[in-house]
């Protein structure tokens, strides 16, 4: 039987690849994000099983409005939406904007939706998979701190959902290609530098992270919860 799957940030990069995996398996997928044109283009590419839903996930009013468009029962929730605040500067106003922006973009976008959908998660088999980052383990200032917050929250969520047979896990990618995160910074020299930090001598691909997400959402992963699956080619260990 087809499952109902919600993927945030599903219009590009890792989220797009996650949505593709589920859609190709015959699941019903809703991709959520802020940019209508991006979502509609992705949904058209991915096929009739995929529905776009425009929502600013850091805005509680927008999340509340979006609930009516989401399935009454959700088998899989993939929290992938997130980005890095680009405010620069050392003054207190710049610091506040950067830290607040990273918290809103990477924590509130996850927590507001998940808490709003908790009662819709399928009892006995529901899955929550949240995409974090290697930055949560290596630092990276306000962005890393925001992603690390998701790790603590996920432990709390897993404990709350466990009695209902619902799992909650994290996938923490390292450097991957095919995303908008790095923009023009990920040039050939930067790819080589980052690849050299891994044990495999290369950066990852969005589809490889999507495969990890797909596994944690599967029936085979039903006894895994509260965990962080590192998907970084050994970059966390370094050479």
TrEMBL record:
Keyword tags: Oxidoreductase
Family annotation (InterPro entries): KR_dom (IPR057326), NAD(P)-bd_dom_sf (IPR036291), SDR_fam (IPR002347)
Domain of life the protein comes from: Bacteria
GO BP term (any one): fatty acid elongation
UniProt-listed Gene3D superfamilies: NAD(P)-binding Rossmann-like Domain (3.40.50.720)
GO terms for MF: 3-oxoacyl-[acyl-carrier-protein] reductase (NADPH) activity
Start and end residues of each Ketoreductase domain: 3-179
Pfam families noted in UniProt: adh_short_C2 (PF13561)
EC annotation from Swiss-Prot or TrEMBL: 1.1.1.100
Family: Belongs to the short-chain dehydrogenases/reductases (SDR) family.
Protein name: 3-oxoacyl-[acyl-carrier protein] reductase
Organism field: Kitasatospora gansuensis
